[in-house]
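Teaching assistant here, posting this on the class forum so everyone can see the example we discussed in section. The complex has two components, and the goal was to see what a joint structure prediction looks like when all of them are supplied at once.
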Amino acid sequence: MFDFSSFMNPTLVWLAVGAAAPIIIHLATRNRPRNTPFPAVRFILASHRKSFTSFKLKQILLLLLRMGALALFAVVLARPWSKTESTDTTLVRAKTTVTAVFLLDNSASMGYRHGGKSSFDRAKESALAAVEAFTEGESKVCLVLVGDKPTHIIRDFEHAADMAHLKERIKSAEISASATDCTAAVNEAVRMLSGEKGVGKSIFLFTDLAASAWPAPAKPGDDADDITFYIIDAGAENPANAAVLSLETPSHATPGAEYEIKALVDGASAAGKQVELVIDGERRNLSPLKGRREEILFPPVSIAGTGDHWGRVSILGDSGLTVDDSRYFTIAEKPPLRVLLVNGDPSVNPRKDELLYLRRALNPPGIIGGRHFDVKEVRPEELSNIEFDVSAVMLCNVNSLPAEVWNKLRNFVSSGGGLVVTVGDNVGSSGYETVDRGAAALLPCEIGGIISPAEPTAIEPGSLSHPVLAQFRGGRNGDLAGEKYTKYIQLKPSKDAEVAIAFKDKSPALIIGRYRTGKIAVYASTCDQDWNSFPIQEGGAYVVLMSEIIKHLAGEAGSRAKTYKVAEVLQLPKYANAEAIERIYLVPVAGGSAEDVTKYLDRRNGILNIPPMNYPGVFKLEATRKDGRREVTLFGTNISPSESALERLKNEDEVKAMLPGRVVKMAKDHNQLLDHLARAEIISEYASHLAGIVLLVLLGEMFLSNHMRARTETSIQAE
Amino acid sequence: MASPEQYLQPEVLARVARFDLKAKFLIEGFFTGLHRSPFKGFSSEFSEHRKYVIGDDLKGIDWKVYSRTDKYYIKRYEAETNMECHLVVDASASMGYGSGAMTKLQYATYFCAALSFLIVSQQDTVGLITFDDAIRAILPPKNKRKHIVHILKILNDTKPGRQARVSELLHKVASLIDRRGLVVVMSDLLDDPDDVLDAFAHLRYKGHDIIVFNILDEAEAKFPFTGPRRFVDVETGEAVVTDSGSIRASYLEAVSSFIERYRTELYKHHIDFHNVDTSTSFDKALMAYLLKRSGR
């Protein structure tokens, strides 16, 4: 009948070894019999035969009573319980009175389907079953949805006694695409219960036990809380979820340019399935999945056409959790980058001109469908008189510049512009003294002297980790290490600068740094072939490197994040002249009804404050102006990658570690939960009965020991 | 070693001397002439007067003295006082036990001293028989005061150490004493009561007036022991380990039953039974008995 694994405090059962204490005390303190010569032994013998046996029995009974009292006391402290075998369900599952908070996890991961139901469906079933176990009119239950932050459905206990209303709210709860924060939800539930004086204070958490849902342990328990935690596991034991975990996509596209898109895919249980890349509704690629986590680099795609573009990477076929099978992205149209090339060594002989190779690299002939760069060439002395209405300025072998020009460049970079410095015979440290050192240095390094190594050196590509070198990874676009450098300038990088590439002798070849909101790159060699053979290398490495340097320097000045997380606050582009906007509609690109969101437009500052999106996808904002012009903006939302990570807390100990100092009971389903609830009633019965038995045993011990003592005293007094 | 004279305590003897210790029953050869003539058959020489006490035969009243004094006195004749008293003392090992200042034998010796003095004082003779598993000493009755010392010397020199066979030796005493007299038995009677009672019946059958002083030690009477004890019989060496407290009540009940049985059974044989324990001073015990006996 008693299951020792079902003691509320099983470790206290060990106190029962204290029942041996009376025996130990008896053995340690018993007196050895003293030899006593006595004439009337015949009377002793008769008395011994008559009364010693009963005395011994009484002594043994006394000992057993004392041992029993100690053992029972330990058992009472351990709070045993047992199930009553009965067909009468009202006995087995007695209703219980609670003052409770239901935490219902409705995050994206709860959509995982197993056994024909989702974890969320199971959670709701368990919650509804638990409500049936509560006493009507006496129990009070609040309801909170657990997402990335707690959402109150039934907020306060004054209005929490209607079990029918509670059941309705549970049934009508919907799953969301948000992330989970069980820690915040638990802390909120504890806050709600603090100060409540009802009986059976409890928190019921219906969740899938995803480890990612617990960013940190909840606040430790306080003895005064007296709150019992019931954790109902609605998740699958061994979830296997195929998901698109993340994407690397260009945020902008220049018409005609090609771009690479990379996806991190967890193909667990998806072997043999495929992943597709779709841009603007058109499939661009279909790749097989290997059935494990892998990085898929789609072949470069060109983004053609004007306006914003959208795309998605999707795992085809069913998976346990479908909300993370696709991940969305948007690409904004962007005009060619405007670049100002400053020729420090012009020549009437084109072959000797400093910019011979660079201008062709930035505007390669024969491009169909658009240019990446819009290039303008000037001489250094012209810099004083022109506006830097460009994205990047390249100083190519420029000897020196007047202070006012440096100031212009300083302001230009401060405002987000990019500055590239390539060197040559004209460049010396003296020409850059004012800008390459000190606290106000514009350049990310000091310009040193010219180095002419005895043997030509070459670039050491290294891990190609810098974003500027992304296009060379995987052996693409030529070999950076293949060219010889006969000369280079010694560069001493400043503290915060990055050495993007170095020579084989470890000297920096390309240093990139920041100045305010802009970036500066210093290339330690010429952009022509005076000091190296790079520009004439076959394979196009020079073109790619120069293009990437400029794009990298100019990229941040114009970038805008257009993909958000589900439930994230949207920071949409401002509308210029918002007073002239007549209507704005929000339309899901995948299909669905349009929603008029004009009411969310703050016409004074042009900001559209629509609520966060609750599900993933691509959405179009179609704004119509009074003059009939239309503006379309795209944005995408994706679920948090953490919701795809269905790895669970491994065992009960890990769950309890998230709820330090709390009484925690785990249930795998609603039957176990109901057993727990019923156990509470049975435990109190046994504990109180056993306490009564202990009292009776102690009274019996007192009576017997007094009786035996009184007999002795009476016989002495009689004499 | 203490001297025998220590047992003769003057204040006790002075008190004892006021008593008469007479045989309750007619003794052969005594008072045979009371009904016919008190002066025939034996020496009936007038010895002395003593005060009349209730129960005395009215025929013994000296009316001449009454006429002179208006007080009743009994004539005492030599033959009337010529009572043989035998002090039969158990000198077994159990009588050598004493938890307090004196052993039971020493206590009995004090009794013997006082009784001897009383008996000799009333012109009777007193003798002594000591026994354990056999008769150890016999002193024929005599009337001399120095005989008392002799009695006491024997008792003082007696070393109890053997097992008593009370019933057997009482039978032997019965066969030893021819002439009826007063037999005072001093023993703890720690023997089979049936056998002892049978021996007493034998003695009574011989016509003796018997007084039994059942002397127990204070410890035997009250059992003051506590805790676990290994009680060893001083005579047999038999041992029993028990818890004193647990058996106390039933032990005292057993002793009480033992004493009561003797009292009841001996009463049937008109034998005086007096139980004393060594916690009561012997003189008080003896006085109490003599008072009780003289009041009959």
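For the discussion questions: Chain B touches chain A through 42 residues (CB under 8 Å). Chain B has a mean pLDDT of 83. Think about how each of these relates to the inputs above.
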